[in-house]
Amino acid sequence: MLTEIHSKEIIEKMDNKTKEEYLKYKDNYDIINMLITTRKNMGLTQKELAQRLGLKQQEISKIETKVQMPSYKKLQKIANELGLKLVLIKR
């Protein structure tokens, strides 16, 4: 996962269109990055996680590469398998 400082440095280097798009979906990216980091820290491959969830490895790959955003139900299922809890926090 990107640190706050590293993230700011990357954002500053983006052109305006890319920056606007990134900031629009930043929360989604943060969630997916947390899932990836946790999966890797647990020593799981995408295939192993998919098998535990009854999904195809390609589904996990599409989620992790941000090609496809999972439904809330699927996101909750993945988070639970990784020992994470989805929580909403007021900004």
From TrEMBL:
Residues 35-89 form the HTH cro/C1-type domain. Keywords: DNA-binding. It holds the Pfam family HTH_3. GO terms for molecular function: DNA binding; DNA-binding transcription factor activity. PROSITE patterns: HTH_CROC1. The keyword Nuclease does not apply. InterPro entries: Cro/C1-type_HTH, Lambda_DNA-bd_dom_sf, TransReg_Diox_bact_type. SUPFAM superfamilies: lambda repressor-like DNA-binding domains. One of its GO terms (cellular component) is cytosol. It comes from the Bacteria. CDD domains: HTH_XRE. This is HTH cro/C1-type domain-containing protein.
